[in-house]
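Throughout our pipeline, every protein is held as a single compact record rather than as scattered files. Such a record has a labelled line for the sequence and another for the backbone structure tokens. The remainder of this section carries one protein's record, kept here as part of the documentation:
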Amino acid sequence: MSLLINFELSDADLEIFYKAMLRVRESAKSKSPQQVSASASRMLAQIRQSDTTDFIKDRMNQLEILIEMVTDRAWALEGEDLERVLTALSYCCEPVDLIPDNTPALGYLDDAIIIEIVCKELEHEIQAFKEFISYRAAEAESREEEAQELQRSAWLEERRQQLHTRMRRRRKGGDSMKTKSRFSLL
């Protein structure tokens, strides 16, 4: 038997997460992108092996795409774009968060909620990255290029720049149409 539970986070509820993200954003500045992505990868492995709920595992699997966005050298996120993704990953790497991770079954619930919220906020970045991955795979197959040549291809760089520009434009256009809340975690 399964049970469906829905809940809505009010502005006051989101304020709690917003304050936690501000704290994390400050502490994350001292860490390199490699440190943050490695820490997030370790946490994802822990969660997959834990006895936490399927709800939490499903949400936390979204970390994988965020980690790939940071570690994919051809995607080459930088500046504000990189900072937004690193901030999202950083919360999950914090040893002290709203619900201690070692709490049986629900220890990662706050992390899952944060990931759900930030994935909504990063929807344009995630969509652009997925398109980039698909484009790269299709082009590599059609051109029969070696992996190393592929990373340096002018056509790949041109497409990356197009997608980066589009995601920024969509994100800025979407800022006025934020979710119900007045808070942005990123």
Notes: The chain has two domains: 11-121, 123-177. Residues 11-121 form one domain. The longest helix spans residues 123-143. Residues 17 and 114 are 7 Å apart (CA to CA).
